[in-house]
Amino acid sequence: MNRLFGSVRARATLGATLVVAVALFVTGAAVLQALRSNLTAEAGTQAEGTARAVASELAARTPYDQLSGLGSKSGPVQVVDEDGNLVAASEDLQRISGTVTDRVEPRPSSPSSSPSASASPSQSAPAREDDEDEDDEDEDDEDDDEDTETPRSQSTPEDEESEPSLAPGETGRQTTFSSGAATMDDDTADYRFAAVDVQTHDRGLLTVSAGAPLAAEHSAVRTALTVMLIGFPLLAALVAGMTWVVTGRALRPVAGIREEMAAITASEDLKRRVPEPGTHDEIARLARTTNETLAALETSVERQRRFVADASHELRSPIASLRTQLEVAAAHPELLDLDGAVEDTVRLQHLAADLLLLARLDAGERPVDARVDLAALAREEAAGRTGVTVDAESAEVAGSRGQLARVLGNLLDNGRRHARETVSVSVRREGDRAVLAVADDGDGVAEADRERIFERFVRLDAARSRDDGGAGLGLAIARDVAVRHGGTLTAGAAPSGGALFELRLPLA
Questions:
Q1: What would the DSSP string read from start to end of 107-170?
Q2: What per-residue confidence (pLDDT) applies to 3?
Q3: What class has domain 270-365?
Q4: Is the pLDDT of residue 34 over 90?
């Protein structure tokens, strides 16, 4: 399991599948919620239309048994008076919940609370036909009772909180929605109910509750949920499969690069190169960078091998000469060439020091961060050397004083070996660079050899005839030190016709 999910291909597939699964889950939940809300609102609008139609009929003084909304084909409808009594209900209504009352059997309003009852002829008949004044007084009292009871029925605390009192024949603007269930003709279903108030002329304040079925909403939600439960896993599986295939094709060149690198490691053949795909993506750039690294590694290894071979060759001569002199001295002490032995020993010492410095430079040793005045350094190195002139202005650089002195000393030694008479040293500023130039009046360096002379153990044929024991490492060491100090060392032609070496370093 760890090996499987340790691959980039498996992790990419798993990550893409998880992202798609989360996105599908969130999207599905949002779609279901929006669908449920829209269908519920649509059912509420339908229920409100039915409730307002019944309320309009009540406002028009339609009797309860003639209300069109109470038929068996309509949804559940309830009419409740201001005392909470069910005064009218739909036919075949057997059970209901979620409305003002759960009663299904209508019950007439009590005479004391019904304005129409208090105004009926039987209730207002005169006790004595011959007493007209008393009859008029009773009728006035009844009118007063009617006037005082109607406002009381219109100013209940609930209505005061919801909306202003309604005038007779007026339907309330506010609609109260709720969800519940109802059983009609032995069929139980969920409904969305809408409740509307209406102020009648003869029956007081009534509340009409009408319901619209939520079967369409439930069916649509169930259908959408079924589609999602089936389709979303298939879509996630499709995404996983496509991701697996695409990442496999994308990573196929990586497998080729890995196999070739393993073969190169096993064979130690640095001439081999990894395959480069013909694309322009990151994998192609990786392959090109890998080949560039292999080329640099091959060059470094080849340079190291040549360096070891040249160093062995250069060490063999003084060691062999010194051994010969020691063997002769052991057999014939009187023939000992002491000066020659000392000369060979010094040559070995210098060669060992050069090799040690090159090894440190190859290892990436960084120079000491110190300020060095090239003008003062040039005067110090030129002191005691014959035929050397100095023309220098102050120019400070950052670096190792010892290594920079080694560079200048190597350049002066090289100039003295090839100069006819004089070697000139100059130091000047050029922008943000300090330039140290060493020129001689010798034969100079051919243009084709001006880069080759900086290679290790390279000595030109003309120089070999006049070389007094140099191993061909001085200019190579000078170039490496210059590069480590962030500068350059180039060879050119001097105005006098000899060689000109210019060391350019950034100013401190």
A1: -PPPTTT-HHHHTSTTTS--S-TT-HHHHHHHHHHHHHHHHHHHHHHH--HHHHHHSPPPPTTE
A2: 54
A3: mainly alpha
A4: yes
